[in-house]
Amino acid sequence: MKKELKIKETQTKQKEQKRTNPLAHVFDDFIDFCQSKSLFMLHYCTGCGAIELPPAMTSRFDMERLGVQPMVTPRQADILLVTGYVSVKTLKRVILTYEQMQSPKYVIGICSCTVNGGMYWQSYATAKKLNEYMPVDVYIAGCMPRPEAVLEGLHRLKHNIKNDRKEQKGSAWKDYYQNYDYYLGNQQNLFGDEWQTPVDVIAEAKLYGLESDGTYGENTKKLEKVQQPLLEQEMKIRMKP
Amino acid sequence: MNKQLIDYILNAVNDIKVTHKRERRIRVDVEADSLTTLLESLKGQASFLHLSAITCVDWIEENQFELIYHVWSYEEKCLVSVHTRINRDRAKFVSVYDLYKPADFFERDIYEMFGVFFIGSPRMEKFILTEWFGMPPMRKDFDSEAYVQETFNWTEYNPDWLQELTDQGGGIAIKPEDIRMAGQLHNMSTHRERESAKKDQVVGKGWKS
Asked: What is the count of structural domains for chain B?
């Protein structure tokens, strides 16, 4: 059933550390600069938008001159590029992938389908708004966007990474920890109340010091009831008789 | 293609209607009872070994499901499509798994998408739609649009530059909200009413040509 959850507008409890080092901001800027210049991108090619990526990556448009490079695993990637429609079944896998990535992490939604379902808006099987289930940094609309548009989107992302701290904007990846209750609620609406992922997001939020009022709520209480601790997997090779 | 042989096999079945669509394409309409017999004799006598697909069509106004079995013979080089109709309320049919092993796969798919249960099929369980617990979505009486309206939220996008264009008389011809029809069609009773209403709406608010 349709529910409209709202993001709680509360300020984070995060303590602002007093910065005694006069060079601290210089270092911050330097770190942001470096981060924006070297991005590994995991492209989750679920839809037709993926067809625009090979020209964007290869010599014609050459994504690598922006410092963006394809990467094979979520653990090593900085950007999760969701290209095209996300079916409900795929969305589970996208969320698992997203949660495996290490912070700071960024999400780009390509094509109209990630914005609003695109041409599959009538379909029972596709999820409509990607940013209900995970924070999205940049949307690139179009059906499909040309490689120029993809590069433009990456430029925007780089700009954001460089300037978010200066302009005191919150990054999107922090939002996942700060408003985990909202995102979890939307996920539960779709997948049922027994939904859980192998990643303990609340523990991660504590680790990063990003807990806030939005981290906890009704939905996380539901999760606590069903959540099972992770067990070690037995390593076994199954031989055929 | 040995036409005599195939005609001989087909005409052995009661109440059969044979249509030769093209040289190597034959459409056959049979009663549901004699379908397995026909397939068996096609397989045994003319080596129709390959079951290409089983298709299901939902004829909601006639309250029937149509099942279509496409079988191909490598020796005769001929495709026979066997059509049969079953009652929609008692959507059950006999599996042809013991004749054709791939039928397992097709029957499972049809069971999931249309809810036709195949008696004797080895795995009548969830296949692709593992997260789906509603009614079978390919049935005509499943209203995908209404389901979508009930389940999902939409992104609203009204930027300033679009407003400027609209003031000048341009902009978007049909707003997304109008296309989505705001669940009005859900209340209409029959499929046909819904279709006509859809047309009216498109014409009424429709294209600025």
From this structure: 2
CA distance B131 to chain A (A): 7
Task: Check CB contact of A109 with chain B, cutoff 8 Å.
Answer: no
Q: Is the confidence at residue B73, as pLDDT, over 80?
A: yes
Average confidence (pLDDT) over B23-52: 92
Tell me the C-alpha distance between B56 and B85, whole Å: 10
Query: Domain containing B156: what range?
Result: 144-204
Average pLDDT in the B57-67 region?
A: 93
Claim to verify: residue B42 and residue B95 sit in the same structural domain: yes
Clarify whether residues B100 and B33 are in a common domain.
Answer: yes
**Residue B95 in domain:** yes
Spell out which residues of chain A touch residue B147, defining contact as CB-CB under 8 Å: 124
Size of interface A-B (CB pairs under 8 A): 55
Q: Could you tell me the sign of the dihedral formed by the alpha carbons of A180, A183, A186, A191, in that order?
A: negative
Mark whether A36 and A79 lie in a shared domain.
yes
Length of chain A: 241
Looking at the DSSP bridge assignments, the partners of residue B24 are none
List the domain range (segments joined by +) for residue A204.
179-228
Note whether residue B127 is domain-resident. Answer: no
Residues A176-232 have pLDDT tens digits of 999 999 999 999 988 888 888 888 899 889 988 888 888 888 888 988 888 887 777
Structure tokens given for B64: 């029937």
pTM: 0.81
Q: Does B161 touch chain A (CB under 8 A)?
A: no
Spell out the residues 6+ positions from residue B83 whose beta carbon is closer than 8 angstroms to its own. Answer: B27, B28, B29, B30, B66, B67, B68
Assigned token pair, A90: 């795929």
